[in-house]
Amino acid sequence: MAFPTAKELTDYLHAHIPLSRAMKAEVVACDGESAVLHAPLAPNINHRKTVFGGSASALALLAGWTLLHARLTAEGRHARLVIQEHTIHFRRPLEAAFTARCEMPAGGAWERFLGGLERKAAGRITLKVVLRCGDVDAAFFEGEYVALDGR
Questions:
Q1: Which of 56, 136, 52 is nearest to 89 (CA)?
Q2: pLDDT, tens only, 23-63
Q3: CB 96 within 8 A of CB 49
Q4: When you count CB atoms within 10 A of the terminal residue's CB, does the N or C end of the chain come out lower?
Q5: With 0-12 CB in 10 A as exposed, 13-18 as middle and 19+ as buried, what is 1?
Q6: What is the DSSP string of 59-125?
Q7: pLDDT per residue as tens digits for the range 82-117
Q8: Are 51 and 41 in contact (CB under 8 A)?
Q9: Contact yes or no for 63/131 (Cβ under 8 A)
Q10: Cα–Cα distance measured from residue 139 to residue 58, given in angstroms and rounded to the nearest whole number
């Protein structure tokens, strides 16, 4: 199973999700078990000189989406990925460049996701993302993603 490279994933995001390009979001790493994305402060700044909450939510959402997209791609599966719902809780302001890290949940979550995709043409999975600024966990995101059969 060959995973797309970080550069390939970044290029894909920039070509297909223009907001990621405007945010200057980059995939730092993605191995199918986790995905890490990075974004600088300047294109994501708000009037308080911190990261705009929408940008923080978007980078977190993209981290989860990227992890699922990369894993599905590596397995040769075709599906349309969408977010159904999400929440984000901010603990501190993000005052500089920031990252979003998503890890695949344990306990058979991926297998259940694929099972739903195969049986019902719609797989669901809940992913958690931690947003970091420097060495501080600043926000916590949880989102339910849905994969719709792409055939």
A1: 56
A2: 999 999 999 899 999 999 999 999 999 999 999 999 999 99
A3: no
A4: C
A5: exposed
A6: HHHHHHHHHHHHHHHHTT--EEEEEEEEEEEESS---S-EEEEEE--SSSHHHHHHHHHHHHSEEEE
A7: 999 999 999 999 999 999 999 999 999 999 999 999
A8: yes
A9: no
A10: 12
- Beta bridge mates, 37: 27, 100
Residue located via tokens 């940008």: 55
Nearest to 94 by CA among 51, 134, 54: 51
Q: CA 143, CA 13: separation in Å to the nearest integer?
A: 19
Interior CA angle at 150 toward 147 and 151, to 5°?
Answer: 145
Asked whether the beta carbons of 94 and 24 are under 8 A apart, the reply is no
Residue showing tokens 């405007």: 22
| Tokens at 2, concatenated | 């060959």
Taking the whole predicted model, whether its pTM rises above 0.85 is answered as yes
- Residue bearing tokens 């005052």: 95
Q: Tell me the C-alpha distance between 37 and 10, whole Å.
A: 9
